[in-house]
């Protein structure tokens, strides 16, 4: 993607990386697991991956580091994903268009319909974190192939 990016778009690529987790990421993930109901897959993810930044894939995709999740949890608390059970989720990332991705305690991933978390409305985009990551991978693959990113 980065090799042809400047030729295709007329400017150099920004940050596009998957950063491996370090000790601080792993410690923050364990703290997160103790602070609120957190899917085990998310903690496992943060044992390996610290964060994901694909600034140039479509509008961008960002999977936040666990210390950002902790800070957001302290400042705003959990988010009601409106599933009828008042399920409380964690904002795990966003796209460059301002929409947020929220993971519920059962592992399902939701995307906001607007850029606001004040009174958010959600669409379920994945049944679990693995499916969400597979959809991200498909978005990257499609972007490299034809410049489109799919529905995420």
Structural class: alpha+beta
Q: Number of helical segments?
A: 5
Q: What distance separates the N and C termini?
A: 18 Å
The major pleated sheet works out as: 8 strands, antiparallel
The H-and-E topology, N to C, reads as HEHHEEHEEEEEH
Helix content: 25-40%
In total, the number of strands is 8
Instruction: Estimate the global geometry from the Cα principal axes.
Output: globular
Whole-number radius of gyration? Answer: 16 Å
Compute the average pLDDT.
89
Portion in strands: 15-25%
Poorly predicted segments: none
Characterize this entry briefly.
The chain is α+β, with helices and mostly antiparallel strands and about 150 residues long.
Please characterize this protein's 3D structure.
This protein has helices at 2-9, 23-35, 40-48, 66-76, 129-146; strands at 16-20, 49-54, 61-63, 79-80, 88-95, 100-103, 109-112, 122-126. The chain is globular and about 45 Å long. A hairpin with a 4-residue loop joins strand 5 and strand 6. It contains five helices and eight strands; from the N terminus they run αβααββαβββββα. Strands 1, 2, 3, 4, 5, 6, 7 and 8 form an eight-stranded antiparallel sheet that branches. Helix 2 packs antiparallel against helix 3 (40-48) and helix 2 packs parallel to helix 4 (66-76).
Summary tags:
eight-stranded antiparallel β-sheet, globular, alpha+beta
How is this fold's topology laid out?
Elements lengths: L1 H8 L6 E5 L2 H13 L4 H9 E6 L6 E3 L2 H11 L2 E2 L7 E8 L4 E4 L5 E4 L9 E5 L2 H18 L6
Antiparallel strand pairs: 1-2, 2-3, 3-5, 4-5, 5-6, 6-7, 7-8
């Amino acid at each position: 993607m980065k090799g042809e990016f400047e030729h295709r778009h007329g400017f150099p690529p920004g940050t596009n990386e998957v950063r491996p987790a370090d000790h601080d990421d792993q410690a923050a993930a364990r703290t997160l697991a103790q602070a609120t109901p957190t899917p085990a897959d998310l903690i496992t993810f943060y044992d390996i991956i610290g964060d994901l930044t694909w600034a140039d894939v479509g509008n961008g995709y960002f999977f936040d580091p666990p210390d950002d999740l902790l800070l957001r949890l302290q400042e705003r608390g959990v988010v009601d994903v409106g599933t009828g059970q008042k399920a409380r989720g964690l904002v795990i990332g966003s796209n460059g268009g301002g929409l947020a991705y929220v993971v519920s305690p059962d592992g399902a991933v939701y995307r906001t319909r607007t850029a606001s978390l004040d009174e958010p409305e959600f669409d379920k985009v994945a049944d679990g974190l693995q499916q969400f990551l597979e959809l991200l991978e498909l978005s990257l693959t499609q972007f490299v192939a034809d410049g489109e990113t799919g529905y995420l």
